[in-house]
Amino acid sequence: MVLGQEVQVRQVHSLLTASEETGITTALLDSLLTEAGVFRQDETRSPSGKIFDAEVHAGLLHEIATRVGPNAMCEAIGATLSEFRALVEEGVLELRSRLPKIKNP
Q1: What is the C-alpha to C-alpha distance for residues 6 and 66, in angstroms, rounded to an integer?
Q2: pLDDT per position as a tens digit, 44-82
Q3: Rg, the chain, Cα only
């Protein structure tokens, strides 16, 4: 409900609402969305003030929420961590983010 009217489809997200919906912390989601170009690097607004188009970025939010880390990926493909790293280095697997503090691929 927005101003007494039922809303069928979310039109905008704030970093805060996207965080609540995806279950990803605001700090991590902020870094990922900034890396993807949703927010500017020098953006200083609070999580509730960082607004973006929910429909345009729905796919990105879904993709971010379904990412897995190296250990889960190794288990899924039956590889050791060394084999996984070799696959990344050879370009067989592509990391979804280059941020050092987050799960990859």
Answers
A1: 29
A2: 999 999 999 999 999 999 999 998 888 888 999 999 999
A3: 17
What string of H, E and C letters represents the secondary structure of the chain?
CECCECCCCCCEEEHHHHHHHHCCCHHHHHHHHHHCCCCCCCCCCCCCCCEEECCCCHHHHHHHHCCCCHHHHHHHHCCCHHHHHHHHHCCCCCCCCCCCCCCCC
State the pTM of this model.
0.79
Residue 26: which of 54, 55, 48, 59 has the closest Cα? Answer: 48
- Report residue 100: phi and psi, to 5°: -70, -20
DSSP-derived pairing of the beta strands 12-14 and 51-53: antiparallel
Neighbour count for residue 8 (Cβ, 10 Å): 5
| Residue 5: burial class (beta carbons within 10 Å; 0-12, 13-18, 19+) | exposed
